Every structure is written in structure tokens, then in C-alpha cells.
Amino acid sequence: MWKARISVPSKVSPGTAVTVKTLIAHPMETGFRRDAIGAAIPRDILTRFEARFMDEFVFGADLHPGIAANPYLSFEFVPPASGTLALMWRDQRGQEVRETLSIEIAAT
Amino acid sequence: MRCLLLFCVLPGVVACHMPEGSEPRATDVSQSPVLPLSGLEFQSVDVQQLQADDFANPGMLWVDRGAALWTVAEDDRSCADCHGEAERSLRGAAASLPRVRDGQLVNLEGQINRCRERQGRADLAYDSEMMLALSAYVAHQSRGMPRSVAISGDAQPFWARGRDYFYARRGQLDLACAHCHESYVGRQLRGDRLSQGQSNGYPLYRLEWQGLGSLHRRLQFCNTGVRAQPFAAGAQPYLDLELYLAWRGAGLSVEAPAVRR
Questions:
Q1: CB A74 within 8 A of CB A98
Q2: Average pLDDT along chain B
Q3: Would the CB atoms of B56 and A69 count as touching at under 8 Å?
Q4: pLDDT tops 60 at residue B110
Q5: Subunit contact B64:A27, Cβ cutoff 8 A
Q6: Inter-chain contact A70–B207, Cβ cutoff 8 Å?
Q7: Fewer CB within 10 Å: C terminus or N terminus of chain A?
Q8: Cα A31 to Cα A45, A64, A68, B148, distances in angstroms
Q9: Share of chain B above pLDDT 90, in %
Q10: Does B61 lie at the interface with A, CB-CB under 8 angstroms?
């Protein structure tokens, strides 16, 4: 799988919400389609997305065949302190893509 | 006197019996037959916003991929070894394609393959993930720049064939490109508004494809739509048409990677 695109503000004021935006390349093949000769195209989807900040769960999503290719997921949370955010996408076979990024709370 | 009157009236009568736009033809070759409007103008607001947002635009996944491939060496040599930083060296390069090189009309995909051939590498297929990534990355370096292609000299015969293709009826539906994209621009075709068929956003992300695709893939799709036999991607009629379309939309900004429905 390709590298995901992730966007977070580089500096965050204390006590304010951070918007995390993610975009990952994935075909999200539904399993309901057929190819040119009528053979079923097997399902190939991501089934789970999770975000943890310093090992604490902050956001999760179950993905299903109705979700379009290259899923875009965005969420907000309030980081209690500077730290690392770990993102994980898991496909139906259990393969995982992991990305980590640091979020820094700006001193006021 | 009566003879004179007849001459005055006749053109009017003829015009009445010709259904408007039934047989469009390019008459003026000195300038584009249309005031160019990007296909973006014909999209819904949410699609326009998706394209405008550099983060959410899914085509940027391929641009990222192309940027990564740019510095990956094959046989000890990467694109960057010759071209350096694409942001500077290839700024504007895609805006003047296709152009004639050694008697052949070469588009962006063709130029990438010519480059690869010089380095002794195998051609990349149209719409292979690697070709899409590289073509999206290179085209993206010209984003915002007006397109301008040369159609004189060597290029003239290619341009003329492209124009003839645009105005020739084809397929079981017996329609020319011009019927939809010139005579009926702005009208509804099922769920879509007919655009001018401009090519300034390619390679682009089509929501229907759920992926990025080349102009030639789109032309195949158009051919299939009028129930004509499509050509292979990279075929000469498509290259000629690509030149004509680029000229027809001269001045439109490169949008790659654009987003369309």
C-alpha cells in the first residue's frame, strides 16, 4: 500500500481541538462488481481505522464496502499535552499501515 | 429585380431548414471555435471544492507517488539525476505538449517514455500506476500556467487531422465530438452537464473511475459512449486529437490533477 497523506497543524494552542485529516490510497473494491467477462471481482477493502494519542484511543472507524476508493477520514480531538499520534489502517486480510506524527503544544 | 430578391431570401430559407448544430464544422482556423471554459466550471460545487483542496484532492496521491519515484534510481539513475528538482526544471513543460519531435507528435506520456528509452528502460503502459504517478507529478509542475501549443509548421498536419477527427461523425450513435462538446455545451446529458471537452486537467481523478486516468482513457470512454470502437491508448488519432484539443483550449490553466465526476 502507498503512503498515506496526513495533515495536522504544526503548532497547537493548549486546550484547543486539533483537526487531523487523512487520505490513503486504497481501491476499496466492493466485491459486488464484475469484470468485462462477467467474473466477480473479489472484495478488497479496508475494515478499520484507529488513532491513538500516547497509546490512548482517540478515534476509530469501521469501514464497509459502501465507502469509496481512497478513503478520506478527518477527526478532531484535544491533545492534553505534546506527544505522538499513531494512526493505523487495517485491511480485510489483517495487513496494517501505520503512521506516527508528533503534535506539539505551543507554549503561551 | 426578382432575381436579386431571390438571392437575398435564399440564404435565410436554407438556414431555416438546417437544424441548428446538426452538422458543426470548424470554419475559422485562426482561433479556437469556442471561448475556452475549463471542465471545472461544469462540475458541482462539491467536486470543485474537492479539486481546490490540495489535501483532499485524491489525485494528489499520485502526485506524491510521482515525487517519490522521481528520486528512485533504476540502474543507478533516477529522473532527478538528469532533471534535478522537477519544481524548477519541469515548470511549464507540460503546458506546451503535445509537440512535434523528430517528425512524431509527442504528448506527456510519450515524452516520459522517450526519456526512458534513452536510458534503456522499457516503456510504461498508459494508465499503469507508474505512468500515472509520473505524468501527474510532471503535469502538476505546470499547474496554473496557461496552455499554449504550436500548431504551425511540422505540427500543422497533425492539428488538421485532429480537427477532422473532432468534427467527424462516428459510432452507432453517429455523433461527432463537436455535437456534444460544441453544439450542446451546458445542456444536460442524463446526470451530467455537457462541458466543452477541454483537456487542461489531465491526468485527472474521475469519481466514476475511483482513480486517476489519462486523456486517452477518457477518449476511449467517449468513443464507447457513442458506440464507436475505441482506439488503443497512445494511438495516432488520439494524439492528433490531443493536439487539437490543447489548441482549442489555449489559454486555459493546467489543473492537473483535476477532479471530475
A1: no
A2: 89
A3: no
A4: yes
A5: no
A6: no
A7: C
A8: 9, 11, 13, 44
A9: 82
A10: yes
Q: Which residues pair with A61 in a beta bridge?
A: A49
> Which of A24, A30, A10 is CA-nearest to residue A70?
A24
Chain A residues at the B interface, defined by Cβ less than 8 Å, are 2-3, 5, 7, 21, 23, 25, 27-28, 68-70, 72
Contact A3 B207 (CB under 8 A): no
- Tell me, yes or no, if B56 comes closer than 8 A to chain A by beta carbon: yes
- The residues of B annotated as belonging to the active site are 222
Quote the percentage of chain A above a pLDDT of 70: 97
Q: List the single residue in B64, B207, B211 with the smallest CB-CB distance to A3.
A: B64
How do residues A69-98 score in pLDDT, each as one tens digit? 999 999 999 999 999 999 999 999 999 999
| Segment A41-61 mean pLDDT | 95
Name the band, by pLDDT with cuts 50, 70 and 90, for residue B74. confident
- Is B38 within 8 Å of B252 (Cβ atoms)? yes
Query: b or e along B201-220 (b: 16 or more beta carbons within 10 Å of the residue's beta carbon)?
Result: bbbbbbeeeebbbbbbbbbb
Instruction: Give me the total of CB pairs closer than 8 Å, taking one residue from chain A and one from chain B.
Output: 33
In chain B, the residue whose alpha carbon lies closest to the alpha carbon of A67 is: B210
Per the rule left: phi > 0, alpha: psi between -120 and 50, beta: everything else, B102 is left
What is the rounded (10 degree) CA torsion for B18, B21, B22, B23? 100
Cα A68 to chain centroid distance, Å, stands at 14
